[in-house]
């Protein structure tokens, strides 16, 4: 071994010793820093948790999830009970798209003046017959309209009528989701029915406690005739079907998701929106319910387009109707002083679903 190699070796050993000392010192200092900032790290963790919770709450601001597990039928019943318990009765109740008289009559039985709209001749006759069998005081509180709720109180619209649950505005085939006359129902015929703005019902009665709309995709046009009432918050609770595929079909605007504009209208007037359970026809492809928890609630456009996403995720050659749900819109200042029902407690934050 030459002196030069010994020198190099000794220098390397010295350098190694310095590195080890520095490393030990660094480890020691790192330990001090970790101990010193333990409380600060915990505080930071809590801060991040709070920030995440705040972000989560903000993401639900557009469509809240308080009543995700409650059906539209139960929400209707619960809100009738909540309203009937108030004194005086807080306004009229309206049902648009009836088929049967049950819900309208329940509102009248609860003490409300019920204004109920049904354009189908066969369904309207069925409703009238049921109302005539009710007690006199209930009959006095029921007001029936054989019209199609629309953007105008003048004129008519084509209406496919058979007296079934699928009666709808227009001459479309709702099963095939095409702009052609329905083929799978031989009783269906397209007739002309008069139209009426819902503003013309609400405004003369000053205010409405509850409105339910189920018009097989015609909802955007229905609510375009209700803008004055919405702007003035004359309706406290609005329960409406939300069927993006049907709305686009009736408007002649396929795949545009115009339902998002309807939700934006409610937000524009300060209403709070609550998402509700998703539904489909029994012949829908199996498995689609597995992705319901992924439905986005932070943005109305994303919320609307999600229903189309389900169709792509579970394609079918035969099933074209798509997926739908209901939306509850609550006016600013609407209150339930002493909530008793599941819906009432959920809306007031007094129950965890």
What does the secondary structure layout of this molecule look like, with pairings?
Blueprint: H1 3-36, H2 38-59, E1 63-64, H3 72-84, E2 92-96, H4 102-109, E3 114-117, H5 121-131, H6 136-140, E4 142-145, E5 148-149, E6 156-161, E7 168-169, E8 189-196, H7 199-202, E9 208-213, H8 219-224, H9 227-231, E10 235-242, H10 244-251, H11 259-268, E11 272-279, H12 300-313, E12 324-330, H13 342-347
Parallel strand pairs: 1-11, 2-3, 2-9, 3-4, 5-8, 9-10
Antiparallel strand pairs: 6-8, 10-12, 11-12
List keywords for this structure.
eight-stranded mixed sheet, single chain, Rossmann fold, three-stranded mixed sheet, 12 strands, alpha/beta
Q: What can you see in these coordinates?
A:
Keywords: Membrane, Transmembrane, Transmembrane helix. This is Methyltransferase FkbM domain-containing protein. It holds the Pfam family Methyltransf_21. With 353 residues, the protein is an alpha/beta fold. It folds into two domains: 54 residues; 286 residues, 3-Layer(aba) Sandwich (Rossmann fold), CATH 3.40.50. It is built from 13 helices and twelve strands. An eight-stranded mixed β-sheet has the order 1-11-12-10-9-2-3-4, with helices on both faces. The protein has a three-stranded mixed β-sheet with strand order 5-8-6. Strand 2, helix 4 and strand 3 form a beta-alpha-beta unit. Helix 11 packs antiparallel against helix 12. The N terminus is likely disordered.
């Amino acid at each position: 071994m030459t002196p030069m190699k010994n020198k190099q070796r000794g220098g390397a050993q010295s350098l190694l010793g310095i590195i080890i000392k520095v490393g030990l010192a660094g480890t020691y200092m790192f330990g001090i820093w970790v101990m010193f900032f333990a409380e600060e790290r915990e505080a930071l963790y809590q801060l991040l948790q709070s920030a995440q919770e705040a972000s989560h709450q903000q993401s639900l601001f557009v469509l809240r999830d308080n009543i995700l597990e409650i059906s539209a039928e139960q929400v209707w019943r619960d809100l009738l009970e909540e309203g009937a318990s108030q004194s005086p009765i807080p306004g009229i109740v309206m049902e648009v798209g009836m088929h049967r008289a049950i819900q309208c009559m329940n509102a009248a039985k609860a003490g409300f003046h019920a204004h109920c709209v049904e354009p189908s001749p066969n369904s309207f006759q069925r409703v009238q017959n049921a109302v005539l069998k009710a007690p006199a005081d209930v009959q006095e509180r029921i007001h029936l309209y054989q019209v199609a709720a629309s953007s105008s109180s003048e004129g008519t619209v084509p209406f496919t009528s058979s007296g079934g649950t699928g009666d709808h505005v227009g001459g479309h085939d709702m099963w095939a989701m095409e702009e052609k006359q329905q083929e799978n129902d031989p009783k269906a015929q397209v007739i002309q029915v008069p139209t009426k703005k819902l503003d013309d019902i609400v405004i003369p009665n000053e205010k409405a406690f509850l409105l339910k709309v189920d018009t097989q995709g015609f909802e955007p046009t229905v609510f375009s005739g209700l803008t004055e009432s919405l702007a003035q918050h004359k309706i406290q609770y609005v329960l409406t079907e939300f069927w993006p595929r049907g709305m686009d079909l009736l408007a002649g605007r396929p795949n545009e998701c115009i339902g998002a504009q309807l939700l934006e209208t409610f937000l524009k007037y300060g209403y709070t929106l609550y998402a509700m359970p998703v539904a489909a026809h029994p012949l829908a492809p199996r498995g689609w319910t597995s992705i319901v928890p992924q439905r986005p609630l932070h943005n109305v456009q994303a919320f609307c387009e999600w229903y189309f996403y389900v169709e792509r995720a579970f394609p079918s050659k035969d099933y074209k109707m798509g997926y739908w749900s209901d939306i509850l819109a609550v006016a600013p200042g609407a209150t339930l002083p002493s909530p008793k029902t599941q819906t009432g407690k959920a809306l007031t934050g007094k129950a965890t679903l």
